[in-house]
Amino acid sequence: MLGLIWSWAGEIRSTEKNIGVSPNIIAAELGVIAMESDKRHNETGALVIATAAEFHHRAVWVHPFEDGNERWARLLANIWLMQHDQPATLWPATDLRNKESPIRDEYIAAIKAADSRNYGPLIDLHQKFSE
């Protein structure tokens, strides 16, 4: 996905960052959030798109890579949606890369709101850009 941009793309980071979990527990955390997403959906009947938005945020929060975490988390959430027979979210990639874009501002605000467990704005964005 990002191999043409960075030669190290796809390699789990080995350094501490000011965001994300410790590098030595990244793989375990990713497994936990995947299992918890399925469990939440299966046991509570939570809306698939709401669970995908939470999964998306938590994948960003783990921050497994040096860079590209948001793009990867959006792809991961889309895979989860499709595995649950739901349409993918068609994120406007150009707008999300543009630091001056109001859509990027809205996306960053939604990720920050999710940091406080307010997933509403991120769910809204998933719905806004669904197929």
Q: Which keywords apply here?
A:
mainly alpha, Fic-like fold
Overall description:
It is a single chain. The chain has helices spanning 26-44, 48-62, 69-83, 93-97, 102-115, 120-128. With 131 residues, the protein is mainly alpha-helical. The protein has a single domain, classed as Fido-like domain (Fic-like fold, Orthogonal Bundle). It is 59% helix and 0% strand. Residues 1-128 form the Fido domain. This is Fic family protein. It comes from Rhodopirellula halodulae.
> What spatial form do the alpha-carbon principal axes imply?
globular
User: Roughly what percent helix?
Assistant: 55-70%
The number of distinct β-strands equals 0
Remind me, CATH topology? Answer: Fic-like fold
- Which CATH C-level class is it? Mainly Alpha
The share of residues in extended strands comes to under 5%
The CATH architecture category equals Orthogonal Bundle
The ordered H/E elements are HHHHHH
> What is the fourth-level CATH superfamily?
Fido-like domain
Pfam family, one: Fic
Protein name: Fic family protein
Domain Fido: 1-128
